[in-house]
């Protein structure tokens, strides 16, 4: 079972600002899901290599050459805040 | 001509011989969407003007004697997690409610070069996370066979659109059954191709090692035609596989001699609905009657598939969805204290409960001190699940079973019980973990008149065999010709 502190720690890592109510509910549901996935403990995987991917493809390289890319105005077209040249974010350095 | 009651083959023939124009076809579907669109709620946006313009261009090309693509004039409902340049692509999320992609997904480009008509963007569970489309933050989609029931998911909008004949073709994505399960629930054909068969470029990522784009149609032949139009190598997806694309629609009508069908015992386990059990067993008897050799096979690690899947899918999702930071695109909160708080507040506002739950599970499963126990363990069990398929497919050509243990559940029935909802994916998710292709074909109805799907699975890149096997069943039965009545 996850403690409320554990759940808050995960939310912080996930960059999710959750309400007290959400933390409690998600904490309970995660607890239930973790109890369920414990079924994997009965599988002996000591001799098994992890399988991150099924595709028989590795190192898909392309030639290192310049190609057309999205023009600036299109790249910025969905930005929540922009000055027409850059993505704008809140100030991150104090007294700057 | 009953345009919306026609198969894609009939529509292509009728446009070819001049009985109807492409504009007639698109207009007929737009009229159906106007009449019934809100009852079903399949579309998040309808591309009325654009689709008529695309259809008019098909008619112009035809009258000018120019070459036409394989899908010329056929409307397609495209799941709203696939980028369409200039047409909003929301993933059914508040996060992307106002997102208009500046580029097309590879699949979108393929549809356009096949002269298909993109008639609208279809509803889904938010970011494709769910099995009922109830996790859409923007719209409720209803099952055309009974509007109290869910259409399945996550590609519920595409499946419901094709089931309700609001479009003859649909495009979905399948991460754990998200094409096959709604196809089964809505009484249409839906196929998840082999991982790497269709480029994921421009598909909004959920779980990158599992996601695969695939077709919906009212019949197997339409499915084959749509698949051959979207499949193929694309350098922009580093997991795209460079293998030639067979002409599936040309061979789909050829029965397979000496077909060996393996019935997966684990797919008929506890919790299977008795109507589903009897319909799928009757479907397997159809193969027997056609001379196929039917045997029981076992996939012994099936009971671990749901746990393995949710650990891997959520881990990958937590990483993929880190990009929604309120900076480059998507929602930004109005109120925040600093940069970090802006991320956290924007994400809290933009994501719905299921997306938050999965990100939380994924972050936990990848976190320091837990990743060996959860994520790494799941990757190892994944290999055992793949090995099960490799072993089973040594002795049979295709595997058969139900697509889902039950017919469509009611809207609201499972929504408060995430684990129970996850368990409804038991028959579909192992194919994603193994990367193999699967198809769901209509195979009957429950006692309360809801569709039931037969699922067939085959080895990697054996789509041709799979489609031919599916067509063998379809031509002996008339389930795919049934249409729902709704008001």
Q: Find the count of extended strands of chain B (DSSP E, 2+ residues).
A: 11
Count helical runs of chain A.
3
Strand content of chain B: 5-15%
User: What structural category arises from helix and sheet content of chain A?
Assistant: mainly alpha
Oligomer: heterodimer
The biggest beta sheet of chain B is recorded as: 11 strands, mixed
The mean pLDDT of chain B is: 97
Top CATH class of chain B: Alpha Beta
- Classified in CATH, the superfamily of the domain at 4-42 in chain A is Glu-tRNAGln amidotransferase C subunit, N-terminal domain
The CATH H-level homologous superfamily of chain B: Amidase signature (AS) domain
The helix fraction of chain B, in percent, is 25-40%
Low-confidence stretches of chain B: none
CATH C-level name of the domain at 4-42 in chain A: Mainly Alpha
List keywords for this structure.
heterodimer; A: 96 residues; Histone, subunit A; 3 helices; B: 487 residues; Amidase signature (AS) enzymes; 11-stranded mixed sheet; 16 helices
Q: In a nutshell, what does this entry contain?
A:
The complex is a heterodimer of chains A (96) and B (487). Chain A has helices at residues 4-13, 20-37, 72-75.
């Amino acid at each position: 079972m996850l403690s409320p502190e554990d759940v808050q720690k995960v939310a912080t890592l996930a960059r999710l600002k959750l309400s007290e109510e959400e933390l409690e509910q998600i904490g309970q549901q995660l607890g239930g899901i973790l109890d369920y996935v414990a079924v994997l403990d009965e599988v002996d995987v000591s001799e098994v290599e992890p399988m991150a991917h099924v595709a028989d493809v590795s190192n898909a390289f392309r030639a290192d050459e310049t190609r057309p890319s999205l023009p600036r105005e299109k790249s910025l077209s969905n930005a929540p805040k922009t000055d027409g040249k850059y993505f704008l974010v809140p100030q991150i350095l104090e007294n700057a | 001509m009953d345009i919306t009651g026609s198969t894609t083959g009939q529509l292509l023939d009728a446009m070819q011989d001049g009985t109807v124009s492409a504009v007639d076809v698109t207009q007929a579907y737009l009229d159906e969407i106007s009449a019934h669109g809100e009852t079903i709620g399949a579309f998040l946006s309808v591309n009325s003007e654009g689709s008529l313009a695309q259809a008019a261009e098909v008619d112009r090309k035809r009258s000018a004697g120019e070459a036409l693509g394989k899908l010329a004039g056929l409307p397609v409902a495209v799941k709203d997690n696939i980028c369409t340049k200039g047409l909003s692509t929301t993933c059914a999320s508040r996060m992307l409610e106002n997102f208009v992609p500046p580029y097309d997904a590879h699949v979108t480009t393929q549809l356009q070069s096949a002269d298909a008509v993109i008639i609208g963007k279809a509803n889904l569970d938010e970011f494709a996370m769910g099995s009922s489309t109830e996790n859409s933050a923007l719209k409720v989609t209803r099952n055309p066979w009974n509007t109290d029931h869910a259409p399945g998911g996550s590609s519920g909008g595409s499946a419901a659109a094709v089931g309700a004949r609001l479009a003859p073709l649909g495009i979905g994505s399948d991460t754990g059954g998200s094409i096959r399960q709604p196809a089964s629930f809505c009484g249409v054909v839906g196929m998840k191709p082999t991982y790497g068969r269709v480029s994921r470029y421009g598909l909004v990522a959920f779980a990158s090692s599992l996601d695969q784009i695939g077709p919906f149609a009212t019949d197997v032949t339409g499915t084959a035609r749509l698949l051959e139009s979207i499949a193929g190598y694309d350098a922009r997806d580093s997991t795209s596989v460079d293998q030639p694309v067979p002409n599936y629609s040309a061979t789909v009508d050829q029965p397979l001699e000496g077909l060996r069908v393996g019935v997966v015992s684990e797919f008929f386990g506890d919790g299977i609905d008795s109507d589903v059990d009897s319909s799928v067993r009757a479907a397997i008897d159809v193969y027997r009657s056609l001379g196929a050799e039917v045997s029981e096979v076992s996939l012994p690690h099936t009971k671990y598939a749901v746990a393995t899947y949710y650990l891997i899918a959520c881990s990958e999702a937590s990483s993929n969805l880190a990009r929604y930071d309120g900076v480059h695109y998507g929602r930004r909160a109005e109120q925040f204290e600093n940069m970090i708080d802006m991320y956290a507040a924007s994400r809290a506002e933009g994501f719905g409960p299921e997306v938050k739950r999965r990100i939380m599970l994924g972050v936990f499963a990848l976190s320091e001190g837990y990743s060996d126990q959860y994520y790494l363990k799941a990757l190892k069990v994944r290999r055992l699940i793949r090995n099960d398929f490799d072993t089973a497919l040594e002795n049979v050509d295709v595997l058969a079973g139900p697509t889902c243990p039950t017919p469509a559940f009611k809207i609201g029935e499972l929504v408060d019980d995430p684990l129970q909802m996850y368990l409804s994916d038991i028959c579909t998710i192992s194919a994603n973990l193994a990367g193999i292709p699967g198809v769901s074909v209509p195979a009957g109805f429950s006692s309360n008149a809801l569709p039931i799907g037969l699922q067939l699975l085959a080895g990697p890149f054996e789509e041709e065999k799979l489609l031919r096997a599916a067509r063998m069943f379809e031509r002996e039965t008339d389930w795919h010709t049934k249409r729902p009545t709704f008001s």
